[in-house]
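Run log // design_07
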């Protein structure tokens, strides 16, 4: 039986790094693709050399991690980094199976006469395909302090858990989520046209809502945005290529799950009920999964960036000691459409999908998403409650509606008004379908803003904040 030769590995490295030879940069297909709004923040981490850390680019499948890596490589060369100082390796390539990271690094060193003190950039794509990758990478960071190591992976569960266990102080995590609504509008070149101070009064809110519905159906994935074929067959593309690969391959291989159909049933139940309050008992009954197993599966699905759970508080903003009920959201509303079919603006599920989309924008915010709860008590509920990290008291609230009725009947919001007054908040934000207005109810200001416009603003502001923080840190 013949082994893969070193010559074959080297030839594959040359193939994967064409800029070593032709000096024209990365493939134009990647170079010319629209850039994620996170590109600048990611590049800032890649070029940061004041601390010795590897950058771990995490995220679900098909959100553009590899494209962003290639675009970063191009920007490095445009900034003057010699092409021979940049290595890209996709560890998903069978030819690299069985090779350690240091073996690949030494081959790279030998090709160009580099030593351990050279300023090099090394990109390891899909690193979860390497067994005990976190130990290999930590060793390289410690041994080759002049090199900058960047790793990516789709199996966010493995990356998040293992990087924290074995890479403490050596890894900086960077999460690339699905497209924000703001990015989606920018990708289709309608942001400037539809967003502005007169969006509502000019009637453009109707067009914005049309795009919002398209975003809910397929807009979380860059490829789907530009492919009519994928949009027409989103169930095959998103379900087969994204959801199923995580449920049927990634998670079972990472955690030794034997009953993959059980996991699949649970996710299907969750996806159908995104934006709803669920209980462990209810999920166990609907999915047929035992409670103890159910708790583990929820952790796996959350770590894999498929879902997020949100804790419940009562009208006094107190958490429940034994919380058996919680809200569950898909991290990308497009997954529901892939499983159960696309929705229209008048579909009964639109309210929950709008809430899912808005909540998914908040997931992009460092720490903020973890500080959002929902309030529910016997007389009412509030969809989003942000708790101040110091006081643990409500700081702001949002009630998500896909209807203009409450703007005309603010008395329907008296439970929200009571919660706001109890906690001394000055204002409540209520999303609508197309109305922009302010009403006073029991001395509380109710600000109505279209859900699509609010979803855009949250995503836009958070990405701007992330870029600013990384620039300031640098």
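design_07 sequence
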């Amino acid at each position: 039986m013949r082994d893969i030769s070193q010559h074959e590995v080297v030839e594959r490295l040359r193939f994967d790094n064409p800029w070593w030879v032709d000096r024209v940069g990365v493939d134009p297909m990647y170079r010319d693709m629209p850039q994620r709004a996170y590109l600048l923040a990611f590049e800032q981490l890649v070029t940061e050399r004041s601390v010795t850390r590897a950058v771990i680019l995490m995220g679900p499948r098909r959100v553009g991690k590899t494209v962003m890596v290639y675009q970063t490589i191009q920007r490095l060369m445009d900034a003057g980094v010699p092409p021979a100082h940049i290595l890209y390796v996709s560890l998903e390539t069978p030819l690299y199976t069985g090779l350690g990271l240091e073996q690949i690094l030494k081959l790279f060193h030998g090709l160009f006469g580099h030593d351990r003190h050279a300023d090099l950039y090394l990109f390891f794509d899909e690193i979860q395909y390497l067994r005990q990758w976190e130990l290999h990478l930590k060793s390289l960071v410690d041994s080759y302090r002049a090199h900058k190591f960047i790793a990516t992976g789709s199996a966010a569960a493995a990356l998040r858990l293992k990087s924290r266990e074995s890479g403490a102080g050596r890894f900086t995590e960077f999460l690339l989520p699905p497209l924000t609504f703001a990015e989606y509008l920018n990708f289709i070149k309608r942001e400037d046209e539809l967003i502005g101070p007169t969006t509502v009064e000019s009637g453009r809110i109707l067009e914005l809502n049309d795009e919002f519905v398209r975003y809910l159906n397929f807009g979380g994935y860059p490829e789907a945005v530009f492919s009519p074929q994928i949009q027409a067959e989103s169930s095959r593309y998103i379900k087969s290529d994204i959801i199923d690969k995580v449920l049927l391959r990634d998670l079972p291989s990472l955690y030794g799950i034997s009953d993959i159909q059980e996991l699949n049933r649970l996710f299907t139940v969750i996806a159908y009920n995104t934006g709803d309050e669920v209980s462990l008992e209810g999920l166990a009954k609907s999915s047929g999964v035992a409670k103890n197993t159910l708790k583990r599966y929820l952790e796996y699905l959350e770590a894999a960036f498929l879902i997020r759970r949100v804790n419940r508080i009562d009208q006094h903003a107190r958490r429940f000691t034994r919380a058996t009920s919680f809200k569950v959201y898909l991290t990308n509303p497009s997954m529901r459409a892939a499983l159960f079919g696309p929705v229209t603006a008048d579909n009964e599920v639109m309210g929950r999908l709008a809430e899912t989309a808005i909540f998914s924008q908040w997931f992009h915010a460092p720490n903020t998403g973890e500080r959002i709860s929902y309030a529910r008590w016997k007389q009412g509920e509030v969809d989003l409650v942000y708790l101040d990290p110091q006081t643990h008291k409500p700081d702001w609230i949002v009630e998500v509606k896909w209807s203009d009725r409450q703007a005309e009947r603010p008395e329907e919001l008296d439970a929200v008004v009571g919660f706001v007054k109890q906690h001394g908040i000055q204002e409540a934000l209520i999303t609508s379908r197309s109305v922009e207005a302010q009403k006073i109810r029991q001395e509380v200001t109710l600000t109505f803003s279209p859900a699509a416009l609010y979803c855009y603003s949250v995503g836009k502001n958070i990405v701007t904040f992330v870029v600013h923080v990384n620039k300031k840190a640098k």
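The longest strand covers residues 380-387.
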